[in-house]
Here is the input.
Amino acid sequence: MTVRFGVLGAGRIGQVHAKAISEVPGATLVAVADAIEAAAQALHDQYGCDIRSIEQIEQSDDIDAVIICTPTDTHADLIESFVKAGKAVFCEKPVDLDVARARQVIETVEAEDGVLMVGFQRRFDPDFRALKAAIDAGRIGEVEMVTLTSRDPGAPPHDYITRSGGIFRDMTIHDFDVARWLLGEEVESVMAQASVLTDPKIEELGDYDSVNVILCTASGKQCTITNSRRASYGYDQRIEVHGSKGSVSAMNQREANIEIANGEGYTKPPLLNFFMSRYTAAYAAEIAAFVAALEQGQPTETTGQDGLRALELADAALQSAKSGQAVLL
Amino acid sequence: MTVRFGVLGAGRIGQVHAKAISEVPGATLVAVADAIEAAAQALHDQYGCDIRSIEQIEQSDDIDAVIICTPTDTHADLIESFVKAGKAVFCEKPVDLDVARARQVIETVEAEDGVLMVGFQRRFDPDFRALKAAIDAGRIGEVEMVTLTSRDPGAPPHDYITRSGGIFRDMTIHDFDVARWLLGEEVESVMAQASVLTDPKIEELGDYDSVNVILCTASGKQCTITNSRRASYGYDQRIEVHGSKGSVSAMNQREANIEIANGEGYTKPPLLNFFMSRYTAAYAAEIAAFVAALEQGQPTETTGQDGLRALELADAALQSAKSGQAVLL
Amino acid sequence: MTVRFGVLGAGRIGQVHAKAISEVPGATLVAVADAIEAAAQALHDQYGCDIRSIEQIEQSDDIDAVIICTPTDTHADLIESFVKAGKAVFCEKPVDLDVARARQVIETVEAEDGVLMVGFQRRFDPDFRALKAAIDAGRIGEVEMVTLTSRDPGAPPHDYITRSGGIFRDMTIHDFDVARWLLGEEVESVMAQASVLTDPKIEELGDYDSVNVILCTASGKQCTITNSRRASYGYDQRIEVHGSKGSVSAMNQREANIEIANGEGYTKPPLLNFFMSRYTAAYAAEIAAFVAALEQGQPTETTGQDGLRALELADAALQSAKSGQAVLL
Amino acid sequence: MTVRFGVLGAGRIGQVHAKAISEVPGATLVAVADAIEAAAQALHDQYGCDIRSIEQIEQSDDIDAVIICTPTDTHADLIESFVKAGKAVFCEKPVDLDVARARQVIETVEAEDGVLMVGFQRRFDPDFRALKAAIDAGRIGEVEMVTLTSRDPGAPPHDYITRSGGIFRDMTIHDFDVARWLLGEEVESVMAQASVLTDPKIEELGDYDSVNVILCTASGKQCTITNSRRASYGYDQRIEVHGSKGSVSAMNQREANIEIANGEGYTKPPLLNFFMSRYTAAYAAEIAAFVAALEQGQPTETTGQDGLRALELADAALQSAKSGQAVLL
Here is the structure.
């Protein structure tokens, strides 16, 4: 069986997914849609796929699944219509910035018995999977405390911040998903502290750039998340999980594994500076996992529910940062 | 000038300080006091110092300074009487478990124009000092976020837990002091989450074994503290400081800098397993700093105020952990 | 311009190169030849290329360049006939196990004004290129001493050893090429020590499994090479270059960048265990470099001369190991 | 029992040993001798020991053992006279620069049934001992190849070079001893390559500054030694031992275990820059081992024979470097 794909949105992330489809055995890129003709044309030129409108893709018999890479505010509607059209859907996070709307979408997917995978690529990163495998193999005993550190090289453009739902919903949301994945229990309590330290304009826009969050589950397992919108040394992405028998951590990645020694000391290069180069393998692996789930008729590894839960945690964190109170879920 | 010392309490930490005194040029150990004769005798045998009672030391003309290493509940009274007797006082933390009493002691010290140094040895650890020096030299720009990880190899005996004031006052208190030292601003808000994950008996005793704390200053600088009473891999003591221009971290220490590679992977030895071996150099350096301050008539690097502030943060953390609300100072 | 390729030999390394061709913009795989039909068929199925005989490829007008991945004893003849047929040739090392014959081939290539690139993929490894770039940028001053460590996870099959020309010609040859590349000067003196430590059968076959070599250039720059046929911890590939102003090293690569800590210590996974997974990026990059050279009409980065020189060093090392004398070139 | 010491020579290394004696339980520093009065006086002031002439120390009934820290050319005579005087002798390496004379001294020691420990402090370094313990515990199986890297921050003064016997006898000699210790078999063959790369004056003085050596034992175990007289990044001291089941290495030491990350990368401080700070613990441990051997009437861990063997290897290496031939022992 071959899964025949349509890609909605041929921007940066759409290109990443198109490349992944071209490399996964059992997947074919049939068509791409994009309001910007040149963007769609570029994918056509590279992979020989058709250029169609979103509506045409929805009605195409030769398309089994779509990857939604369009702007956030179109996600909910597109998921609903494509699920109703009988297509399997892979959608970049978030389902919607509004929890109520996201919940509605999940219900629609369930009512239609549809397939919805939400793009939390970190779960597919080879290092993070090796860390998870070590936990699952009992190498560290019972998980007790998770420490997540995510720092971006720099803040996104101001106009993105106004549309993104803020740092908890556009950045920390990935950590919320990773936290749920690693804690192995649902979070019951969220505490957050948030500041603006890198750019006063971010405060004017009503957002934060430096946040810390503590999550706690029913049995008392905890997770701390540290986020900054600025890191001079690159894209900082670390996980540490402390358990009853030991600890496991995943280290950062740099472009070259070299070290220069001189009178100043021993210096390794800065980190990979961009989420796309850091998570190249993860993006490919998540599409491969989506294809494998479809082929085997299994549930996808991340679902609409996962997208919803992460969003709920983001909302709770924002509320806690504003109120100074733990928010109970 | 030579600083002539009396050591009050010849237990584990008293022995450490006696050794430090014997090695610092400009310091002499004149006398030791301990209710347990054999303990005092051991120090006498090793360093040739007199054995005297606490009262005798207080009245000794040939003693300039004392190191208080007696049980916590004697600290406040001893500080007050020795300061009144004109002795410079170095006291192990805490001044007292009760903030009001500790505040009273600080006032007495100030009224008497006395010298009180509180034993926060971490500030004197060579690695942590190198980290602080890097910050002070502007290597990472403005401090934004501090991350402190402290995990003990195992919990203290149950009866110690009942006397210690609990994890925030006996363990996190060191991190509170380090946080204040590194943030360079007073903390205004404290959030804490606390669980019992390693031993249900600890819950019965009314304490916690796994805690996370977020501190925030007036300008929005933040610090997270992670503590566990159990770490299979040794005594885990890490600092990371993230600033506007970069980051600096201090790594853990192990007994031997070797690595064994085989089919299982590349393995380095566990960490030093005991706070006294981890902080050997720090204990010596803090006594040297105390002596240097006395010789030069300068204020000591840590003071009673530092002890009080750390205690206030511990109280606030406990209150936050219980209430689920940020505590403002 | 597109470079149209024929691949001779569809075994393990032929497959690697076919994949590389399929991914390099400006390159197309037109045809494959292999005595084993199923092997050729597999490449046809994957890349849609023709299946032709070696002779047909030689005479094909629609083929500009060939990749020679056939057994070693066919290399020399194939290079000569394809160069005479006007094809650009990329040949896996060695040109020939016999220096005289290799020299003859180089002469033929030069007489025909042909293009011959010899496959020393290590020069194209991203880490090693970053190391070389640091040297070229003056980061370590003048190169003084190069240290190369190459250990294989296990010895090749015994029958390969009898055909390979021995450890110096099949394994150390890569290090000889890297040494020349990094020293920046031709080697004048070769000293070698060789033993059999892992398998007595290797001694019966007249080969060694554990060797050390010291190279020296006219100006006194030195290089040591350490090789073993056995390493329990994976495929060990390290470079260290010491210069007048500093040092640069390239570290080993492992499958996952994680670390597990417990009572046994801190353990990272073993190394990548196979030269093909270790040098995946290098194999792709060398084909890209070959294509780029052809497109721009520039000399290839490695040439037949490089292949010849490395072989001469291998012969010299073998002679030194047997005689106990430095061999001068 | 207390071992009563005389120290001959109150220079840099004499001071190190005097301090070690003062800290080892069971050892007392009774007297020091030095031609320079101020040097002897300094030790007297610090440790309260007598100042005596070498002859007086030889005749002192209250002295059991001496530490010889005088210039190299006095070692042989002093060892002989003190052994004859019934004193246990600890002598800094070398016994003598001349192998024949050294052999004579060893014979005298044996004839007198005397005790002679030669100061190869590296064997007592805690990291190197942990490495050796891992080997002895079978962690890496049979030792196959040893790799020793020793680089000094800078060359010694020119006049020292003229007196030291050259790089093999003053610097590599420590590596020869470590090689013997770790190989666990006597060396049968020595190959060496030597250049002058850092300072042409060193060539004028008839010495080298950059050398590589390959040692081989009867069973084919090998050891490579890399030495340079210049390393911009500090005092480089590494050991790696490769065995049939794995590998063990000892890493370099730096002053502080911190790391600074910024746009330039991740930088750790340079190495400890001086052999005395690098080997502080080793110097103390070797004196403790000497005292322990005397107390228990056991042979010392390093002996005159070890000094002799290392010197023979140095001579062989020099001969090989000059002749280009392996020297068989």
